[in-house]
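User: Here's a protein and a ligand (iron/sulfur cluster). What would the complex look like?
Assistant: Let me lay out the input and then the predicted complex.
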Amino acid sequence: CVASGSMKIYEEMKRLCADLDGVEVVAQKDVPHIGIAKTGCQGLCELGPLVRIEPQHLQYVHVQIEDCKEIVEKTVLRGEPIERLFYKHDEKPCEHPEDIPFLNQQTRIVLEHCGNIDAESIDEYIAAGGFQGVVKAFFEMTPEEVVEEITKSGIRGRGGAGFPMGKKWSQVARIQSDVKYVVCNGDEGDPGAFMDGSVMEGDPYKLMEGMIIAAYAVGAKDGYIYVRAEYPLSVARLKLAISQAEAYGLLGDNILGSGIDFHLHINRGAGAFVCGEGSALTASIEGKRGMPRVKPPRTVEKGLWEKPTVLNNVETYANVARIILDGADWYRTIGTEGSTGTKTFSLTGAIENTGLIEVPMGTTLRHIIYDIGGGIKKGAAFKAVQIGGPSGGCLVEKHLDEPLDFDSVKKFNAIIGSGGLVVMDENTCMVDVAKFFMGFTQRESCGKCGPCRIGTKRMLELLQKITEGKGEMADIDKLEETAKFIQSRSLCGLGKSAPLPVISTLQNFRHEYEEHILENK
Ligand code: SF4
């Protein structure tokens, strides 16, 4: 929306409303106050810029500067809808956001406030029920009960590995230490992923609330949010949210008179993909070069400044307040037995409705692509979807009806990862796709261990050779052999998963590799 001009629309609406004398006004006396707010992302990337009018709850799409005057005169002042600005589905205008199929087929927990509240107003978050999770945890539950509730909910970390969150919290809570930390990974480096950025921009308070509850549960007094520097709006909104929470006594010393102290800090990463790995991330916060280290000790035992540390990503923390408020039993009703709750995905590529979605774990790819995403662009045939970014793999036609959850996706040599979904149509060359992702991981390899540093380079060279028509059949064997070596010998997750795009494309599209080789013979 920002890229397509929403900030200009915001300024124009402000100008028009501040100067209502110049507008033909009907029943202006019935309009005691007009407020204009910048919300976060509603997820409808294809339809921006978006304007929502409350209390009529009207949703306008593709709004242009020229539409602003009419919106103020007709809708804001007289409550009249402007039909041409509604999204049309099957020729019918969708007046309210809930009428739009892209939105009404989702289950929104993490994204419940994104696009619905002013992302710069803590008052709006509180009015929407915000910080009730903190109040309940602090005044009705012991730290042990909070950990127990999170464990019972079955929630697994949304950053990629899917490690049970309750287990991590209970390990840190059990360790005796004067100093502990709560850290949030907001580094989101996968190409095509923008879920965490959207949460930080659209509802920074929800993330903050989850971290405050985590700190209470494990006994930490300081927390760090590690945000990639390419997310300046996230950084600005988090900073503002922190200062507002401090002013309201929701952060700092003696929170809400409870005797509990918790201070929250922001660290900006410089864009290295490897800093999404736990030990590299904590090293980066400490001011060192962001490089993974050998484990054990694990982050829960010796994390930031060698102290016990809870490290989760943005989406994971954004689930916490609702679990505490509505209970683990409620949370377990969403998703699957082994992967409870919802998952946010960024839907990009050759799909009609690109955008940000949240669905229960276990939702099928077919439902996401065809019902929510509106199908493949220009009626082309579906070919594959890259899931989990450069560390993930591709899913194909035969996987369309498989449930998407942590365990089922692993069976197909892919991972859910943080939730990037790049959809590809029949015109996509899968060897090129594998080369793109291998190029990415090769550049991002930190170089600490040989299998990853040298192995990814060799694999990239082989892929270049094949796509340039200079390959031989033996190169496919070399690719497979090197992939196995890198997977088994690399130090961290980046190296271990770097060959996945090649492995899964070879598994599903081996003939495309062979065609590249044969067409130039
Ligand atoms: Fe660095 Fe790659 Fe080794 Fe990880 S696997 S430590 S990114 S060289």
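Summary: The first strand starts at residue 51 and ends at 53.
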